[in-house]
C-alpha cells in the first residue's frame, strides 16, 4: 500500500463496467475524502420519459455492491415485471429496465423535473445507496454521444450500443452539447483542489467514455495548469477489450487494437497532461513502445476478476502520485 499524505486527493475518471471496477478498487484503498469519481454522462438518454444515466448508475451500483456482475449493468437479483407488462402493452423493450433499476430512473427523473441538478440528484441517490465516496457526473449540462457510421447514419449512443448491438461500422464520434457544457461543480472542485495529487483514467472505452469526460471545456486546460500526474489504465489487453466495443471501434477507425494504440490516441488528444500508462502483464512486450511516447509505464495485472485484483490495480495506479 502506497504511503499517502493524509490530505491526498485523487480523481478517478470512469465510464461503464471496466472503469467502474477500478473505481471500486480506488474506493477500497482511499477514504471518501481522498477521492472523487467522475462518471461519463455521454451515454445518457431520455427513454420512455425517463432520464437514464448508465455510467453513473454502473459506478453507483458497483460501489453500493448491488451491481449485476454477470451482465455488467443494472442491479443484481433483478426482476423484470415492468418490462414484461410493457411488452404486453407493445411498448419499447429493446432497452431492458429492471424493476429495481426503474426506481433509480423514476427518482432521478422526478428530481430533475423539480429543477435539481444531475449532481444534486446523484448525491441523493448515493445517499440512498449508502455510498460514502463521491460519485459525480462530468457535467450537469446535457452532453450526448453520437456515433457516425460507415452507412452515413448517425446513431444515438444507446441505439448504437444496445438496439443495434454495436454492429454498425463506426467512422467517428461527436459529443452534442459539449461545446456549451461546463464541468460539474464537483468535477471543478476536485480539479482545483490544492491537494490533488493524481488523476486516474480507469480502463474504459477511450472514444465514448474517456474522451467525453476530458473534452468537457476547461478540463484539459485545468489539468495542464495543475501539472498533476495523470495515468491511464489500458482498456485493451492483448488485442482485446475486456468488455465492450473498444477493440472493434479501434479496428474500424484503422487503429491497431493494442495498448500502445490507446496510449497514442490519448497522447494525440491530451499530449503532455498524460504522464503515465498501465498495461497488462500479457502486453509486457509493448512497454518499450509506450515508454517511447514519453509515458511512465507500469506493467501489472489489469484484468480485474476478484476484489483483490481491483484493490491491487488501484494501489499500482497510486504509485504515479506526485509524492511517489
Ligand atoms: N446494455 C445492453 O446491452 N442492453 C440493455 O438492455 C441495457 C439496459 C440498461 C439499462 C440501464 C442501464 O443503466 C444500462 C443499461 N445497459 C444495457 C448498459 C448501457 O447501454 C450502457 O451505456 C453500457 O453499459 C455502456 O456504458
Ligands (ions, cofactors included) = ligand FO1
Percent of sequence in beta strands: 15-25%
Give the CATH class of one domain.
Alpha Beta
Order of helices and strands: EHEEEHHHHEEEHEHEHHEEEHHEHEH
The biggest beta sheet reads:
7 strands, parallel
CATH superfamily of one domain: CofD-like domains
Please name the CATH architecture of one domain: 3-Layer(aba) Sandwich
Give the key terms.
globular; 324 residues; binds ligand FO1; seven-stranded parallel sheet; alpha/beta; Rossmann fold; three-stranded antiparallel sheet; 19% strand; 14 strands
What would you note in describing this structure?
There is one protein chain. The chain is an alpha/beta fold. The chain is built from 13 helices and 14 strands. A 7-stranded parallel sheet has the order 5-2-1-9-10-13-14, sandwiched between helices. A 3-stranded antiparallel sheet has the order 7-6-8. Helix 1 runs parallel beside helix 2, helix 1 packs across helix 13 (307-318) and helix 4 packs antiparallel against helix 5 (118-128). The longest helix has 15 residues, at 99-113. Bound molecules: ligand FO1. The site of ligand FO1 has 17 residues, from helix 2 and helix 6.
